[in-house]
Design a protein that fits this description.
This protein is α+β, with helices and mostly antiparallel strands and 279 residues long. The protein contains five helices and six strands. The protein has helices at residues 2-22, 26-136, 139-162, 165-187, 247-278; strands at residues 189-192, 204-211, 219-225, 227-230, 233-236, 238-244.
Length: 279
């Protein structure tokens, strides 16, 4: 403000000093000075108004800032409430899942116990059936033997009345034949004869032995107890008497075997030499 006043004063001085030199009238110079002062005052008024506008703008900004602060607090509060609501929903979902898993666990546990009880009952039933099978495995065989026992009883009763030994003997032989045929036909039990056959350790059990000096192989000369085959296996070995060859016969047999081996080797060598000669 003071600078503008000094400037106006300086302007007036210049105008007053220039007026006599220019030769212009004094009234015109006075009028210009008045106009200049008026313009300076107008400038000062505009500056004051602009300063007032700036103060009003600052006041408005402060009010806007005060209004924004409550709005930001409200937004934070709403966000916190929304997050709290989401957490509550998540907790509710997890609690529901826990209840569901507990129910499923209880159901599986009950099913497991039921299966375990069923398996235990099955095991006991199988054990009982196995025992019953072992106890009654020979049921059919015994049913087949019962008629044979009936035949023996009838033969004994007939022998008591008639006292006929020949008839009794024939009846017993007939019953024995029927029984062996039945066992062979239904159960695969077959009796084999051993007398006159070559001794076989798989089928025969030598009870006694004698050196007869006959033959080159041990032979069965007497059958003390019959042997039996069940299908293709030996069920019971036959107890037999074996006739052993004489020691000389055994030596001759061994020598014959040795000569045979030598003859066989010489024949093989001869065939080999003849083949090489042909080549």
């Amino acid at each position: 403000m003071s600078k503008r006043t000094d400037k106006a004063t300086e302007t007036d001085a210049n105008v007053s000093s220039a007026a006599p030199n220019a030769g212009e009238p004094g009234q015109e110079f006075e009028q210009k000075r008045t106009d200049t002062a008026g313009s300076d005052s107008e400038v000062d008024r505009q500056g004051a108004e602009s300063g007032g506008d700036e103060g009003a703008g600052g006041h408005q900004d402060a009010q806007a800032t005060e209004q924004q602060e409550p709005k930001s607090e409200t937004a934070d509060q709403e966000q916190a409430e929304r997050r709290n609501h989401e957490l509550q929903q998540r907790v509710a979902e997890l609690e529901g899942r826990v209840v569901e898993l507990e129910n499923e666990n209880s159901e599986l546990k009950e099913r497991y116990l039921r299966k375990q009880a069923d398996f235990e009952n099955y095991r006991k039933r199988m054990q009982r059936e196995k025992e019953e099978l072992g106890a009654y495995a020979n049921k059919q065989l015994l049913l087949d033997l019962v008629p044979v026992i009936d035949d023996f009883e009838r033969a004994i009763e007939s022998a008591k009345e008639s006292r006929d030994f020949d008839s009794f003997y024939e009846g017993v032989v007939l019953i024995e034949k029927q029984m062996t045929e039945m066992l062979e036909r239904k159960w695969g039990l077959q009796r084999f004869e051993s007398e006159g056959e070559e001794f076989d350790p798989q089928k025969h059990e030598a009870v006694t032995a004698e050196h007869t000096g006959e033959g080159t192989e041990p032979m069965v000369v007497e059958d003390y107890q019959k042997g039996y085959m069940l299908h293709d296996r030996v069920l019971r070995s036959a107890k037999v008497k074996v006739a052993m060859p004489a020691p000389k016969a055994e030596a001759d047999r061994e020598s014959d075997n040795g000569n045979g081996d030598k003859n066989g080797s010489s024949d093989a060598e001869g065939r080999g030499s003849s083949d090489s000669a042909k080549q």
